[in-house]
């Protein structure tokens, strides 16, 4: 990404949820400032919540170099009910190369001694799909396709189209499905799609967070374990660092990756999803998933055995978190439609 910015000749568009000002963030600021000063049109969009500790610094520094900076729904917008977020991670350079996925700009993704950085994925795109992306960045909900690559952007219509792409891909799987998601709060229809796949003989594997940066998110996910395991779904928990990936590979030939989480809030936030039907790219992603599953803790049905009180508390807490997320997302959605 830094190399792409350094080689930019006409335009740089960077859209990211979290942009830290120190460490690798400072390197990005330097690269963006240098691009703006050599005449490149530079636009940066950061989320007002995800980048609240750095947005003022970024705005001041980049605008001084001639770049355009937008803080999406700053904290003050909460008082007017604008609670939805820009959760996208997009870097587009010269409408010729683009990077999309789940990776923010911050040092959390780098290894620290023996501890790996956050586990996450992004794809690099080149060619006509980048030209299409440049034309549709501000067009709201969009679906772009070029050859084996499709890019879906959620705008005013929310992320329901992105969710449908996941369910369609799951329903189309015939042999194997590997899914890695950090914040896994699927709705009933999504849960049923995964269980249907397992029951028709598809090998379904879930790589989930063994620890989370979001309080109580894991409790909401763990309440689903027994149901999945009984349906034949295998579950692996990544505990070496924070899992932040949002990706799936179907039958070793189709990849879904982006910023879109399988939770209610992603249905109302601005999100991205890339769908690639190309065996080479899917194989690279499958290898990443397999390596992380090998280093993860396999969860078995007996691991879910707890005392009645423990199970009751877990189920109550998990259900409460899930229901709160659903209702909060519904509230945000109503506000967006006004």
CATH C-level class of the largest domain: Alpha Beta
Binned strand content: 15-25%
**Spatial sequence of strands, sheet with the most strands:** 7-8-14-13-12-9-10-11-15
Tally of individual domains: 2
The CATH superfamily of the largest domain is identified as Endonuclease Chain A
| Number of helices, counting only DSSP H or I runs of 4 residues or more | 10
What's the N-to-C terminus distance? 37 Å
Q: What kind of assembly state do the chains in view correspond to?
A: single chain
- The radius of gyration is 20 Å
Tally of DSSP β-strands: 15
Work out the helicity level: 25-40%
Shape: globular
In this structure, how is the largest beta sheet organized? Answer: 9 strands, mixed
CATH architecture of the largest domain: 2-Layer Sandwich
The class by helix and strand makeup works out as alpha+beta
What is the fold's blueprint, element by element?
Elements: H1 2-6, E1 11-16, H2 24-37, E2 41-47, H3 55-64, E3 68-72, E4 90-93, E5 97-101, E6 122-126, H4 128-136, E7 142-146, E8 149-153, H5 160-172, E9 176-181, H6 188-199, E10 203-209, H7 217-222, H8 225-230, E11 234-238, E12 246-250, E13 254-258, E14 272-277, H9 279-294, E15 297-299, H10 308-337
Parallel strand pairs: 1-2, 2-3, 9-10, 10-11
Antiparallel strand pairs: 1-4, 4-5, 5-6, 7-8, 8-14, 9-12, 11-15, 12-13, 13-14
